[in-house]
Protein backbone atom coordinates (compact mmCIF):
# COMPACT_ATOMS: atom_id res chain seq x y z
CA UNK A 1 0.00 0.00 0.00
CA UNK A 2 1.28 3.46 -0.95
CA UNK A 3 0.73 6.40 1.39
CA UNK A 4 2.14 9.92 1.72
CA UNK A 5 3.13 12.08 4.67
CA UNK A 6 4.93 15.39 5.12
CA UNK A 7 8.64 14.63 4.72
CA UNK A 8 10.43 14.03 7.99
CA UNK A 9 14.05 14.01 6.82
CA UNK A 10 14.91 16.46 4.03
CA UNK A 11 18.59 15.50 4.13
CA UNK A 12 17.71 11.88 3.42
CA UNK A 13 15.36 12.96 0.62
CA UNK A 14 18.14 15.06 -0.91
CA UNK A 15 20.48 12.07 -0.80
CA UNK A 16 17.88 9.92 -2.60
CA UNK A 17 17.65 12.58 -5.31
CA UNK A 18 21.43 12.58 -5.69
CA UNK A 19 21.58 8.79 -5.82
CA UNK A 20 18.91 8.62 -8.52
CA UNK A 21 20.14 11.61 -10.52
CA UNK A 22 23.93 11.27 -10.20
CA UNK A 23 24.46 10.01 -13.77
CA UNK A 24 22.49 12.93 -15.23
CA UNK A 25 24.30 15.45 -13.05
CA UNK A 26 27.65 14.03 -14.10
CA UNK A 27 26.66 13.91 -17.78
CA UNK A 28 25.51 17.53 -17.76
CA UNK A 29 28.06 18.85 -15.24
CA UNK A 30 25.41 19.88 -12.72
CA UNK A 31 26.90 20.86 -9.38
CA UNK A 32 25.41 19.23 -6.30
CA UNK A 33 25.63 20.75 -2.83
CA UNK A 34 23.62 18.65 -0.37
CA UNK A 35 23.42 21.42 2.22
CA UNK A 36 22.21 23.96 -0.33
CA UNK A 37 19.70 21.50 -1.81
CA UNK A 38 18.30 20.69 1.61
CA UNK A 39 17.98 24.42 2.35
CA UNK A 40 16.18 25.07 -0.96
CA UNK A 41 13.77 22.18 -0.46
CA UNK A 42 12.60 23.60 2.87
CA UNK A 43 10.62 26.17 0.86
CA UNK A 44 8.73 23.43 -1.01
CA UNK A 45 5.90 21.09 -0.07
CA UNK A 46 7.81 17.87 0.65
CA UNK A 47 6.15 14.49 1.03
CA UNK A 48 7.62 11.12 1.81
CA UNK A 49 6.29 8.29 -0.33
CA UNK A 50 5.70 5.27 1.88
CA UNK A 51 5.40 1.65 0.76
CA UNK A 52 3.88 -0.48 3.52
CA UNK A 53 4.81 2.25 5.99
CA UNK A 54 8.46 2.53 4.96
CA UNK A 55 9.84 5.60 3.13
CA UNK A 56 10.77 4.68 -0.45
CA UNK A 57 10.62 8.04 -2.16
CA UNK A 58 9.90 11.73 -2.09
CA UNK A 59 7.74 14.19 -3.96
CA UNK A 60 8.31 17.95 -3.88
CA UNK A 61 5.86 20.60 -5.10
CA UNK A 62 5.65 24.36 -5.33
CA UNK A 63 2.73 26.56 -6.26
CA UNK A 64 2.67 29.69 -8.39
CA UNK A 65 -0.41 31.83 -8.93
CA UNK A 66 0.35 32.16 -12.64
CA UNK A 67 1.67 28.71 -13.53
CA UNK A 68 -0.13 26.40 -11.14
CA UNK A 69 1.67 23.54 -9.45
CA UNK A 70 5.27 22.64 -10.21
CA UNK A 71 6.47 19.13 -9.58
CA UNK A 72 10.00 19.98 -8.43
CA UNK A 73 11.08 16.44 -7.71
CA UNK A 74 9.75 12.91 -7.78
CA UNK A 75 12.14 10.22 -6.66
CA UNK A 76 11.56 6.55 -5.92
CA UNK A 77 14.29 4.32 -4.53
CA UNK A 78 15.57 2.12 -7.37
CA UNK A 79 14.62 -1.05 -5.47
CA UNK A 80 10.97 0.03 -5.63
CA UNK A 81 10.76 1.35 -9.17
CA UNK A 82 8.51 -0.38 -11.68
CA UNK A 83 5.75 -1.01 -9.12
CA UNK A 84 3.43 1.87 -10.01
CA UNK A 85 4.67 4.06 -7.16
CA UNK A 86 5.59 6.92 -9.50
CA UNK A 87 2.12 6.87 -11.08
CA UNK A 88 0.51 6.96 -7.65
CA UNK A 89 2.77 9.84 -6.62
CA UNK A 90 1.71 11.78 -9.73
CA UNK A 91 -1.94 11.13 -8.85
CA UNK A 92 -1.21 12.51 -5.36
CA UNK A 93 0.44 15.60 -6.87
CA UNK A 94 -2.65 16.16 -9.01
CA UNK A 95 -4.89 15.77 -5.95
CA UNK A 96 -2.82 18.34 -4.03
CA UNK A 97 -2.94 20.72 -7.00
CA UNK A 98 -6.74 20.43 -7.10
CA UNK A 99 -6.88 21.17 -3.37
CA UNK A 100 -4.90 24.35 -4.05
CA UNK A 101 -7.38 25.26 -6.82
CA UNK A 102 -4.86 25.19 -9.67
CA UNK A 103 -5.48 23.59 -13.05
CA UNK A 104 -1.98 22.85 -14.30
CA UNK A 105 0.81 20.63 -13.16
CA UNK A 106 4.24 21.39 -14.65
CA UNK A 107 7.65 19.73 -14.50
CA UNK A 108 10.97 19.50 -16.25
CA UNK A 109 12.76 16.25 -16.96
CA UNK A 110 16.05 15.30 -18.57
CA UNK A 111 15.32 14.29 -22.15
CA UNK A 112 17.11 10.97 -21.76
CA UNK A 113 15.30 10.00 -18.56
CA UNK A 114 13.04 6.95 -18.63
CA UNK A 115 10.62 9.02 -16.51
CA UNK A 116 9.56 10.82 -19.70
CA UNK A 117 7.45 7.78 -20.61
CA UNK A 118 5.83 7.75 -17.16
CA UNK A 119 4.90 11.40 -17.48
CA UNK A 120 3.48 10.91 -20.97
CA UNK A 121 1.43 7.88 -19.82
CA UNK A 122 -0.07 9.94 -17.02
CA UNK A 123 -1.20 12.84 -19.21
CA UNK A 124 1.79 15.14 -19.50
CA UNK A 125 2.82 16.61 -22.83
CA UNK A 126 5.92 18.52 -23.87
CA UNK A 127 5.28 22.27 -23.88
CA UNK A 128 8.88 23.26 -24.72
CA UNK A 129 12.40 21.92 -24.65
CA UNK A 130 16.05 22.89 -24.60
CA UNK A 131 19.25 20.94 -25.07
CA UNK A 132 18.86 18.99 -21.83
CA UNK A 133 15.24 19.17 -20.71
CA UNK A 134 11.67 18.64 -21.71
CA UNK A 135 9.31 21.08 -20.01
CA UNK A 136 6.03 19.25 -19.59
CA UNK A 137 2.52 20.19 -18.57
CA UNK A 138 -0.61 18.33 -17.54
CA UNK A 139 -3.94 20.13 -17.45
CA UNK A 140 -6.07 19.14 -14.50
CA UNK A 141 -9.82 18.91 -14.98
Structure, described:
The chain is an alpha+beta fold and 141 residues long. Strand 3 and strand 4 form a beta hairpin. The chain is built from four helices and seven strands. The protein has a seven-stranded mixed β-sheet with strand order 1-2-3-4-5-7-6, with helices on both faces. Helix 1 packs across helix 2.
Query: H/E element string?
Result: EHHEEEHEHEE
Compute the separation of the termini in Å.
Answer: 26 Å
For the secondary structure, the number of strands is 7
Low-confidence stretches: none
Strand order of the largest sheet: 1-2-3-4-5-7-6
Quaternary structure type:
single chain
Question: Which secondary-structure class do the elements indicate?
Answer: alpha+beta
Write the layout of secondary structure elements.
Elements: E1 2-6, H1 10-27, H2 34-41, E2 45-51, E3 54-64, E4 68-76, H3 85-99, E5 104-110, H4 115-121, E6 125-129, E7 133-139
Parallel strand pairs: 4-5
Antiparallel strand pairs: 1-2, 2-3, 3-4, 5-7, 6-7
Helix pairs in contact: 1-2
Summarize this structure as a short list of keywords or feature phrases:
141 residues; alpha+beta; 7 strands
Care to give the gist of this entry?
With 141 residues, this protein is an alpha+beta fold.
Amino acid sequence: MITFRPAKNLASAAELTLANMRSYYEQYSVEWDSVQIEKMTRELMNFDILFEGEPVGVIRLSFDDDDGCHLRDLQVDGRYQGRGIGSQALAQAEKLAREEKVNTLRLKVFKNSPAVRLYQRTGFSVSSEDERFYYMVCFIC
